[in-house]
Amino acid sequence: MGRLIPLVVALAACAINSPASAETGTDNAVILKPSSPWHVDYADQKCTLAREFDVGNAKHILLFSQVGPTPRFGLIAAGSSFKGFTPSRGIQHRFGNIVEKDRAPLLGDYSGFGPALVYSATTLEAAKDAIAKSASQARSMEANRTDTLPLRFPSIDIDLALQVDGVTFSQGKQVVLFQTGNLAKPFEALNKCIEDLAASKGIDIDKHREFSREVRWTNIFEIAQRLQRSYVRGPSRGRESGIFGVFVIVDEAGGLAECHIEGLTVAESLTSPACKEMKRAKFEPALDINGVPMKSFLTTTMSYRASP
What we know:
alpha+beta, twelve-stranded mixed sheet, three-stranded antiparallel sheet, single chain, 6 helices, 308 residues
């Protein structure tokens, strides 16, 4: 059973009342103001940060979710203001003024709120910076370089969150702005929830404060292909979309110790065989700061999109 914990801090009054044009570049934005405090849901296998907003009598909701330690998070924005958004054109989302992306979220419906944009994994890092960082880490891994060490326990960057006071979604002339207030304290709470979840699975958090190598998944492409084939042949036959978060525990010998999967969307017939296929996965264990193998984790997201 999860625990729903409100953040009892002065967040409800933190909404930024700057003009819409300053934040979005248009005077036609729908401005959504908070109508509830932030809440963190400490579920058994997932952490969710949520807050309700409204404009007039129209309720909206913004949710950030994670299943394991990572700077990335799932994102759902729902409410009647998204009724005109379509999958045929690019949809941009912006966290304050520090990042803007053009991605194709799943479009669906969130119970009690209506039309929803659903992102499998996004980040506060600027897109170009995230790409460069990912490429740099890949090159370092291949060359066994140590100039990027030590690694740190992965989490949402609070320094970046300090720069965010609103989340904006836009498509063409349609602009929806959630006046979230500063996101540092809410994301600190989400980070703490995920840290507690990892510790509950036997992960030594102190060893992960500084360490020398993450878990390496050596046959990721083979498993990805098997997952794709199972989606097309499974009960949904490729007709239903869904997003699943996967949290894997890898032991000191590189063996699969645990696998947990959580649906980040509601799908009637779509179930992911990720944990079944993970039994075929091959890993190299994480290494502590002294190069000694240690129990660690891998967090990833599986997205399934319906065939057109």
